[in-house]
Specification:
Elements: H1 2-7, H2 11-64, E1 78-80, E2 85-90, E3 102-109, E4 115-121, E5 134-139, E6 142-150, E7 157-158, E8 169-176, E9 185-189
Antiparallel strand pairs: 1-2, 2-3, 3-4, 4-5, 6-7, 6-8, 8-9
Length: 198
């Protein structure tokens, strides 16, 4: 009898083993599910943060390289409203293969809630028709922009800019759509940073 007992397992032992194994598997699956959920949430946060940081870097680069005008005897190409911005700048070195890196850039939010840069090459002497603007989408889920311009401590921040000279500071506040789950984001940039002395 004892020899037969050692040869195999009883049905009760097999059932207990299966129950313990099932509990262990449930714990592993639950832990894996929690880990995957946390990883997905972290990935979404990083993607959102990456979008904002990429837009921040792009806008800083372009606005810090604004053309102040005066080189050709003409004033700066600059039109600032509370929701859009048009200016002349120098594109980054990555655009070195183009005929000219000088460009007229428009920053605005379109009807699809996309923060877009529209740019046209700024030829000193253009021959032929005006080319179609290039579109670059910086971010999605942007409801609108709130842009303000700093002249001096006496005047403070202004919602529009009509002066011939560039403002000393530009504040761009991105307001996101309600469904995006993002908080508003502010960027404060100094045009022609190396030339201004506040």
């Amino acid at each position: 009898m004892s020899a037969r007992r050692q040869a195999g397992f009883t049905l009760l032992e097999v059932l207990v083993t299966l129950v313990v194994f099932s509990l262990l598997m449930m714990g592993l699956v639950q832990g894996l599910r929690l880990g995957v959920t946390a990883w997905q949430a972290q990935t979404r946060t990083m993607v959102k943060r990456g979008d904002v940081e990429a837009a921040d870097r792009t806008l800083r680069t372009l606005i810090e390289r604004m053309d102040p005008g005066g080189v050709s005897g003409r004033p700066a190409t600059f039109k600032g409203t509370s929701h859009s911005l048009v200016f002349t700048t120098t594109l980054p070195e990555a655009a070195d293969t183009m005929v000219t890196r000088a460009a007229i850039v428009t920053l605005a939010v379109n009807e699809k809630n996309q923060l877009q840069l529209l740019w046209l090459p700024n030829y000193r002497y253009r021959i032929g028709p005006v080319p179609v603007p290039e579109h670059v989408t910086l971010m999605n889920d942007v409801d609108h922009l709130e842009i303000a311009y700093w002249r001096d401590p006496k005047s403070g921040w202004q919602s529009d800019w009509a002066a011939v000279v560039l403002p000393k500071l530009i504040r761009i506040r991105m307001v996101f759509t309600r469904d995006s789950g993002r908080q508003g984001y502010d960027i404060v940039i100094m045009p022609m940073r190396d030339r201004w002395r506040l």
